[in-house]
Specification:
Blueprint (H helix, E strand, L loop, with lengths): L4 E7 L6 E6 L2 E7 L5 E8 L3 E9 L6 E10 L4 E2 L3 E3 L4 E11 L2 E3 L5 E12 L1 E4 L18 E9 L2 E4 L11 E4 L2 E2 L2 E2 L3 E4 L3
Parallel strand pairs: 7-9, 8-10, 9-11, 10-12, 11-13, 12-14
Antiparallel strand pairs: 1-4, 2-3, 2-5, 5-6, 15-18, 16-17
């Protein structure tokens, strides 16, 4: 399986006539419909827009008995890069979704994938954060939600549903206290945000 590469199967009824198949105005072939009932267009590029014309011809190819023209748009796959860091909530609704050694970092954002096919070519990972730590005195952020719905899936996808590490405590300070003219024990006060 390769991303953005598609094969399209064409078929027509069996008759005693001939068939002529053209793609974008160029004749691909002419054949007897009693011998050939289908043909596969191989290695079409994802996102390509094509015009397909199938004509049923008389035996002598003088007359077009019937024809059908179709505009085809080859689906465009969604392909995750090697590293993908979300910066907003994201929804991916696509025919096919590919991952290939991908590391997807959601941070605090939500990711929804709805697809017919989820194809992980080489091990990939989805995780909340990568070695991230909140600002001093701040709590760490949640890793967001991941929702995947696929009719078919293959490959190894690992999940590390970690959150962001909390920040270090804020610096405090010592206070020297006096009470009624007498010294008391020093105390340490933490700074609150």
């Amino acid at each position: 399986r390769r991303p953005n590469v598609y094969d399209v199967l064409l078929s027509w009824p069996q008759t005693r006539d001939r068939v002529r198949v053209s793609l974008d105005g160029k004749v691909l072939f002419t054949a007897n419909t009693s011998e050939i009932l289908n043909h596969t267009l191989n290695n079409l590029s994802g996102g390509a827009k094509l015009n397909l014309l199938i004509e049923i011809l008389s035996k002598d190819e003088e007359d077009v008995l019937t024809s059908e023209s179709r505009d085809l748009e080859v689906p465009q796959d969604y392909v995750f890069p090697d590293e993908f860091i979300l910066s907003y909530d994201m929804k991916i609704h696509n025919n096919r979704v590919f991952m290939n050694n991908s590391v997807i970092i959601t941070q605090e954002f939500n990711l929804e994938i709805k697809t017919k096919e989820l194809i992980v070519l080489n091990d990939s990972t989805m995780q909340g954060f990568a070695n991230s730590k909140a600002q001093p005195g701040k709590t760490g952020r949640s890793g967001g939600l991941i929702n995947i719905e696929a009719e078919y899936a293959e490959g190894k996808l690992m999940f590390n549903l970690n959150s962001e590490a909390g920040g270090d405590a804020l610096k405090g300070y010592y206070v020297h206290r006096l009470s009624g003219g007498k010294e008391k024990q020093d105390i340490y006060l933490a700074t609150c945000p």
